Amino acid sequence: MRNRGHEWLARAEALTTPEHREKPAPRPAPAPQGTARLPYLSVTDVERLIRDPYAIYASRMLRLRALDPLRASPDARLRGNVIHNILERFVKDTSADLPPDADAQFMAIAEDILASEAPWPAARHLWRARLQRLLPWYLAQEAGFREVASPWVVEEDKTWEVPGLSLTLRGKADRIDLTDDGRVAIYDYKTGKVPSADEAKHFNKQLMLEGLMARGGAFADRPLDIARLAYVGLGTKPELRDEPVDAAALDEVLGGLHTLVTHYRQPLVGFPSRRAVTNTRFDGTYDHLARLGEWNETMEPVVIPVGHSDGGPDNG
């Protein structure tokens, strides 16, 4: 009887055993052939190009993007958009001067935007409570901002042709204030964690790149001198952190951008997946396309030429 049982167990195992075992996919680093590489980037793309070049290959060269979910949810991204919209309207409505009832006006705007953009009672309650906790700190910072400058540009998209690089750089400034002497203070709202000084030096170049754009005349009809570059952290622990504004620091970022883009424009250089994402908390949008799980970050990326060197269609 036991032998007959072994026979049936063997048959069951055979049903689930593949006839041929596929080799795990390598860690990919696709190298597009016969196509212009990186003619255009946004300021937020630069961090992705440093951390996860494959994501830039998939989004900017293959032009792939994730489908919108069938049903929206009150996630961190939506919360960030809602808070940005509240700040945008509040700053525009009070650009002439902060009113005596600034707190009441801010919360009235918040209630209106929460009602229209967050159709989840529980999420509205939590986000309203967060805003109320942040409000005294935020208004104190706002008063300080306006002692030295006035709101000038809010949530404005601009492009800049990077000198000597044949690259169009696009940036959306959360806020630019104008001082009496014609200089600008650029602020970047962060509803999550503000990048540390080390993270900003090696990865998070967005604010410094916006400073370069302002210096290059992207936000006005003339080059602008930079008075301040600062992150305004509106997360669990509010924080204000400045970036350097001297010409040497900005020139260093510009030189780094030249080096980075020039490197990935070389035909034999691939775009490796997850090059430096060890500190991120979530999987990337394109990790499944890169077959993450069949390889890990300890493996060397494999350069895979894709497309045609004669400019034919991409086969990658």
Describe what you observe in this structure.
This protein has 316 residues and is α/β, with parallel strands linked by helices. The chain has 2 domains: 31-63 and 150-306, Alpha-Beta Complex (Lambda Exonuclease, Chain A); 73-147, no CATH class. It contains 9 helices and 8 strands. It has helices at residues 2-16, 43-51, 53-61, 76-93, 102-117, 121-148, 197-202, 206-215, 247-264; strands spanning 28-33, 40-42, 149-162, 167-179, 184-190, 226-233, 239-243, 302-307. Strands 2, 3, 4, 5, 6 and 7 form a 6-stranded mixed β-sheet that branches. Strands 1-8 form a two-stranded parallel sheet. A hairpin with a 4-residue loop joins strand 4 and strand 5 (184-190). Helix 2 crosses helix 3 (53-61), helix 4 crosses helix 5 and helix 8 (206-215) crosses helix 9 (247-264). The longest helix has 28 residues, at 121-148. The relative contact order is 0.19.
